């Protein structure tokens, strides 16, 4: 068999399961699910990041563009480009933030809300497709476990961000 036409096994599959830490499994699953979701969202000309921005803005007008970027782990310049594209399509509007005039809130338009609802159905379909090997209980347990981990991590990050200036101030005064 020619080496160019020979089918190769997936490298990840070839690694013994006992050598795959959970963190590597989560990473691999996230990539696979994201790829599948992006493929399905293409029919409404949206990406996962665009969907998540619409999701964050759905029925919530208090989040600033910066809040959404931080919460979704999107760097500022990418966030600006994403919101620009959504705004050009008439899906969102930037509105000056009431409490901080330097910031903008991201607000869904009626068309943005309609598209979000359509994309949310695509998300549920993608989830069903990707997790088809799991029972309903396993899906529920997986979601609950991930939320538990993510909420605990968010709490740690929140506590760390509250203590970080104090740590820096302590280090500065001790020098």
From TrEMBL:
Record keywords, A-Z: DNA-binding, Transcription, Transcription regulation
Species name: Hydromonas duriensis
Pfam families: MarR (PF01047)
Protein name: DNA-binding MarR family transcriptional regulator
Record-linked InterPro entries: HTH_MarR-typ (IPR000835), Tscrpt_reg_MarR-type_CS (IPR023187), WH-like_DNA-bd_sf (IPR036388), WH_DNA-bd_sf (IPR036390)
Domain HTH marR-type span(s) in chain numbering: 16-151
Phylogenetic classification of the source organism: Bacteria, Pseudomonadati, Pseudomonadota, Betaproteobacteria, Burkholderiales
GO molecular function: DNA binding; DNA-binding transcription factor activity
């Amino acid at each position: 068999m020619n080496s160019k036409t020979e089918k190769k096994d997936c490298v990840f599959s070839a690694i013994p399961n006992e050598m795959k830490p959970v963190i590597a499994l989560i990473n691999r699953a996230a990539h696979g699910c994201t790829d599948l979701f992006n493929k399905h969202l293409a029919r409404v000309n949206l990406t996962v990041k665009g969907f998540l921005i619409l999701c964050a803005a759905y029925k919530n007008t208090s989040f600033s563009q910066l809040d959404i970027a931080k919460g979704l782990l999107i760097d500022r310049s990418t966030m600006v480009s994403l919101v620009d594209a959504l705004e050009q399509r008439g899906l969102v509007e930037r509105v000056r933030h009431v409490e901080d005039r330097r910031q903008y809130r991201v607000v869904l338009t009626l068309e943005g809300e309609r598209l979000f609802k359509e994309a949310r159905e695509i998300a549920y379909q993608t989830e069903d497709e990707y997790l088809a090997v799991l029972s309903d209980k396993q899906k529920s347990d997986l979601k609950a476990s991930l939320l538990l981990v993510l909420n605990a991590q968010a709490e740690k990050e929140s506590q760390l961000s509250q203590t970080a200036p104090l740590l820096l101030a302590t280090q500065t005064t001790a020098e």
